[in-house]
Amino acid sequence: MKRVFLIVAAVALLAAGCKSAHDNSLPRGTATQAQLDAFDSWFAAEADAGQEIHSAMLLQHGRVIAERWIEPNAPDSAHIMHSVSKTFTSMAVGFAIDEGLISLDAPLVSFFPDKLPEQPSDWLMEITVRDLLTMSCGHDDEHTDEIRYNDGDWVEEFLAFPIDHEPGTFFCYNTIGTYMLSAIITKVTGQKMVDYLQTRLWEPLGIEKPYWKESPQGMNFGGWGLYIKTEDMAKLGQTMLDGGKWRGKQVIPADWVAEASKAQIDNRPKNFDPDNDPNPDWHQGYCYQMWRCRHNAFRADGAYGQYIIVMPDQDAVMAITANVRNMQTELALVWDIILPVL
Predict the structure, then answer these.
(1) 118: burial class by Cβ within 10 Å (0-12, 13-18, 19+)?
(2) Alpha-carbon distance 209 to 199, whole Å?
(3) Higher confidence at residue 112 or residue 275?
(4) Domains 33-77+229-269+277-342 and 79-226 share a fold
């Protein structure tokens, strides 16, 4: 079965050279034998660790050099992104800022003055778009599950929760905060975020309009609920690696790519001990709805092992879909096995 896959892959590589200029798929390249061996070894190591990988695509110098799907997953099937969705939300925010519709320092409450609690706290009034992007809106704990499993107005419920810290000073991973970014995009554009991205991201990158789950108020979840293909993940990663350009054309504003992929807030917990850290790739700093990693890399990541890993020093991108128990183990094996052959 493995031999059949390799033959099919070789045919696909040959066919890639004959594609028309209008084909928006990623170009295919040729891997070294060491890279192919490492790709095989990485899949085997993940399996040995009890990790269920669904697909992986590895790019270097703008070309796909290795790719694999484990049945029933397939190249043309969309996969749940979980929190990788957040990075696509960040791109929508970047477009809206570039178009002058919002600003990083715009107060959250300015978009929803009719949904405020009767006595809003001073700190609620201080939350900005930037604070939502950096997961620093001031909550001690995220309230996603308390909000999403009912039919209330998610915006009103978010605004009603007490704020425990001065916004911008305390990191707390907050998925429902990303929903608020989606709500802001809908408020200022009159469109669901998935529709707003149609001409700005999906069409330029040749991504078929994806499915994105919605709240009872008809707004995309933002922080989760997006379904896209592995190659679509890799396209975003490659575009970010290239400073927002796709095939030489500026698609995502370059300054947004630079800011969105830069550490914006210290996300290390209190009494952090770097010498005894079981999750070192989660304590390198948080960006705008994505994470810094070791090895000067950055990533979009989602629960159960969904990754878009961008490695500027190696001019490489790796997209992974999975259903794993330990995301740090999954990522550490990338560093241990894949990184050395790039």
Answers:
(1) exposed
(2) 10
(3) 112
(4) yes
24 CB contacts (<8 Å, ≥6 apart)?
205, 206
CATH superfamily of 79-226: DD-peptidase/beta-lactamase superfamily (3.40.710.10)
Q: Could you read off the pLDDT of 43-99 as tens digits, one per residue?
A: 999 999 999 999 999 999 999 999 999 999 999 999 999 999 999 999 999 999 999
Q: Alpha-carbon Rg of the chain, whole angstroms?
A: 20
Judged on CB neighbours under 10 Å (0-12, 13-18, 19+), 59 is: buried
Nearest to 109 by CA among 120, 96, 94: 120
CB contact at 8 A, 195 and 109: no
Whole-number percent of the chain with pLDDT over 70: 94
Q: Which CATH class is domain 33-77+229-269+277-342?
A: alpha beta
3-state secondary structure 109-151: HHHCHHHCCCCCCHHHHHCEHHHHHCCCCCCCCCCHHHHHCCC
Tell the burial category of 306 from Cβ atoms under 10 Å away from its Cβ (0-12, 13-18, 19+): buried
What band does 317 get if pLDDT is binned at 50, 70 and 90? very high
| pTM of this prediction exceeds 0.85 | yes
Average pLDDT of the segment spanning 221-230: 98
Residue pair 125/109 in contact (Cβ under 8 Å)? The answer is yes
* Contact call for residues 182 and 220 (beta carbons, < 8 A): yes
Q: CA 191 to CA 203: how far, in whole Å?
A: 16
Residue linked to tokens 């800022």: 97
Q: Is 196 exposed, middle or buried (0-12, 13-18, 19+ CB in 10 A)?
A: buried
What is the spatial distance between Cα 209 and Cα 314, in angstroms, rounded to a whole number?
30
Instruction: Indicate the domain borders of the chain.
Output: 33-77+229-269+277-342, 79-226
pLDDT score of 288 = 98
Give me the chain's average pLDDT, please.
Answer: 92
Q: Measuring CA to CA, which residue among 318, 342, 89 is closest to residue 224?
A: 89
